[in-house]
Amino acid sequence: GYRRGLKLDPQQPDALNNLAYLLLQKGDAAEALSLAEQAVRLSPANANYYDTLARAQAKTGDRAAALQSFHKAINLKPDSLAALIGLARTLQAAGQPAPATKIIAQIHQVMKTNSDLSPALTQELQAVRAAQRSAHPRA
Hints:
mainly alpha
């Protein structure tokens, strides 16, 4: 459906972003990255687009760009659980547990007022918490 819509009007940032996110779920990170970049170019003030872009960048191996994009998303929308969770996971993958721990604390603060997570984000948060426990086992 998104592809048909984009054939009619290729300048639809929502359709570009949503298709990019779906492609990330299916494993096509290269096309997802291109679509997410287009969405951000068309609507640079949308935090959700930067979140998708960051996830595509991380999946294609560009962690430095992913970290920048997650930070842009959070600057635009400080309570974005998706961006915060993605940032924590990317920091963990980059071997930066201390900054990840700070972001996890921020996630817990945001969740006090906004705990509505999709099943995919819930699963990602569980993975982030498990990685944190592994990095910091209790004595």
